[in-house]
Amino acid sequence: MGDLMPVNEALGRILAEVMPAGAEHVPLMQALGRILARDIYSPMDLPPFDVSSMDGYAVRADDIAEGVRLRVIADVSAGQVLNGSMEAGEVVRIMTGAAIPKGADAVVPVEQTDAVWAGVAGATGPDEVTFRRATKRGDNIRLRGENVMRGQLVLSAGTRLRPQDLGMAASLGMMDVEVSRQPQVVIVSSGDELVTPGEPLPYGSIYESNGVMLAGLVEQWGGRATVLPTAKDEHGAVRAMLQTALALRPDVIVSSAGVSVGAADYIKAVLAELGEVGFWKVNIRPGKPLAYGRVGGVPFFGLPGNPVSAMVTAMVILRPALLQMTGQIDDVQRITAVTGDDIPSDGRQSYVRVTLSREGGQIIARLTGTQSSGALLSMVIADGLLVVPEGVMRLNAGSEAEVLLLRLG
Ligand code: AMP
Ligand code: MG
């Protein structure tokens, strides 16, 4: 293992350095997927008043018995309120969502009376109504504060806001929410063989694919990504690329490729010139050559070029940094699975692409076929990454192992 830094140590050093990105207010309509910066305590009770959960009659429960006929004194629809109060022997025709009139303590559904409303639009119904059976106090009433009590914690800081979270905030009358600022991440790549999609592909070249993939990951993790054009494998070009990245005043710079020991690998040298190299070899597979440092005070992640290595190292090393910057709760799901294949390793902490299936009460993890770090299709097929811990040289079929589930969206 020699000069390879253990994954946990590398992470610890990065997390000791990265700063929170700050917070901003955004309108609810723009807050989907953003990370809530503060706990939200309800400023009010929900429902805010005692409310009918049925179409029927607001009554005093003590008045009601089989065959009792009572006078209907008023009509209240949702949004309306009865002026004054209901006396003994009186009932009020009431709709779902309307406030319970003063004096009433139960609602009897219309089906439990002799009234017929269906299809009689705008009808006010009979002036008297006969009840078919007794009722209890509180029947068909949702009490004020039954769903949420004023002062109750409803949404926790660090939550990635989902549609139901936004609906919750709106139900409390909120127009905007305080969310973490999105770290600005500039993504760069270098390689003479890389061609932008849409261009013709000369023999010997490949399409540049890490940019859009890393941008997608960054955005899933709460950042905003800008992808710069690919630089040639020249010292000056790589240097100019990093300077262009810096000029955008990002919170983070991420590059892929150019960090191994090939003749055309300039990232480390340029990083040393413009800033400082923290470390550049981590005990991880795929992805051992992995530079971390700073340029102009900006954290710099030099990921490997092979697409699978770039994605895995981004997940293991970059993601925790972005989560910390945005104060995000780690929502990666980890499960224990049983290996369906023998899985060889080499002592590095390894992230193996697996599919998962449920068989006889167990979750079985099988290799996705090729594990080549260049084969991005293995990532497309995989349900998760199976973790082979540091120091382990082989997992035999039938072993238990931890699997990180890949996000669906
Ligand atoms: P390198 O780290 O520059 O030696 O690159 C390792 C491998 O990853 C090579 O096969 C490259 O062609 C490939 N590679 C590097 N950058 C990219 C990229 N942006 N998109 C797709 N493949 C890449
Ligand atoms: Mg290269």
Topology:
Blueprint: H1 7-15, E1 23-27, E2 40-41, E3 51-52, E4 56-59, E5 69-76, E6 90-94, E7 106-109, E8 128-130, E9 141-142, E10 153-155, H2 163-171, E11 176-180, E12 184-189, E13 194-195, E14 206-207, H3 210-220, E15 224-227, H4 235-247, E16 252-256, H5 267-274, E17 275-281, E18 284-285, E19 289-295, E20 298-303, H6 307-326, E21 334-339, E22 343-344, E23 349-359, E24 362-367, H7 377-381, E25 384-388, E26 394-395, E27 400-405
Parallel strand pairs: 5-6, 12-15, 12-16, 13-14, 16-20, 18-23, 21-24
Antiparallel strand pairs: 1-11, 2-10, 3-9, 4-6, 4-7, 5-8, 17-19, 19-20, 21-27, 22-26, 23-24, 23-25, 25-27
Helix pairs in contact: 1-6, 3-6, 4-5
This protein binds adenosine monophosphate and magnesium ion.
Structural write-up:
- Helix 3 packs parallel to helix 6.
- 18% of the residues lie in helices and 30% in strands.
- The strands form eight sheets. A six-stranded mixed beta sheet has the order 15-12-16-20-19-17, with helices on both faces.
- With 409 residues, the protein is of the alpha/beta class.
- It has helices spanning 7-15, 163-171, 210-220, 235-247, 267-274, 307-326, 377-381, and strands at 23-27, 40-41, 51-52, 56-59, 69-76, 90-94, 106-109, 128-130, 141-142, 153-155, 176-180, 184-189, 194-195, 206-207, 224-227, 252-256, 275-281, 284-285, 289-295, 298-303, 334-339, 343-344, 349-359, 362-367, 384-388, 394-395, 400-405.
- A hairpin with a 2-residue loop joins strand 19 and strand 20 (298-303).
- The chain has four domains: 7-21 and 181-326, Molybdenum Cofactor Biosythetic Enzyme, Chain A, CATH 3.40.980; 23-46 and 146-180, Molybdopterin biosynthesis moea protein, domain 2 (Alpha-Beta Complex), CATH 3.90.105.10; 51-142, Molybdopterin biosynthesis moeA protein, domain 3; 334-405, MoeA, C-terminal, domain IV (Beta-clip).
- The structure holds adenosine monophosphate and magnesium ion.
- Magnesium ion binds at residues 191, 257-258, 264, 305.
